[in-house]
Amino acid sequence: xxxxxxxxxNNTFNPWIGCQKVSPGCDHCYAEAMMDHRYGKVEWGPHGxxxxxxxxxWKLPLRWGRKARETGTRQRVFCASLxxxxxxxxxxxxRADLFQLIAATPALDWxxxxxxxxxxxxxxPVAIAGLKPWPxxxxxxxxxxxxxxxxxxxxxxxxxxxxxxxxxxxxxxxxPLVLLSGSRLLDWIICGGESGEGARMMDPQWAYDLxxxxxxxxxxxxxxxxxxxxxxxxxxxxxxxxxxxxxxxxKSAA
Length: 254
Hints:
The chain has 6 helices and 9 strands. By secondary structure, the protein is of the alpha/beta class. The strands form 2 sheets. The chain has a 7-stranded parallel sheet with strand order 1-4-5-6-7-8-9. The protein has a two-stranded antiparallel sheet with strand order 2-3.
């Protein structure tokens, strides 16, 4: 998408489409509802075929990168909203092509969000083979943690992988969440309730408690939405970004 409606990013790029459910946070997956059930374009699930997007779509980030360099303003790219970069069903060649594109667009900050952080350590070396050494300054690695159980499992895995920014998407929030003490490698948390038909309730107190938790541990906090996209209370409308967000997008940026 040229301009994303997702509040914490600027653009959304899907190198391919398709995924499968792996935890309760996936139960009401909007991507499956739209691309599989509504339009029938991609079959979801372990046996569904992942479909690579068009060459024209793959050229969009190059255009965004040129614009960012010209204006000196970095742009954030969420990759991928209709898939998972670290999905086992995706060919290694596709991931390699994606990281070549990321390497070619240093003025874009690529936000790679996954529910499969355990796959990164084995897939990343293959994806960046022949390219510059890791970590890259324009790649943010994130994982979805819908409750304490999934945070306790996924975040320690992600935290061991070097990245310019480490982030957690606590969305949809399905239970209270308390950060592990001393989470110094965690840069950013996105907090949000579920939306759409049958949305499960996020207790507003979970968000308030997490905000205070983030403030105590100096973790940037971004309140995305309440359940059903109800108005966010003014004292909860905190939308911070990690510190690297302020880096300039100059022609010499690495």
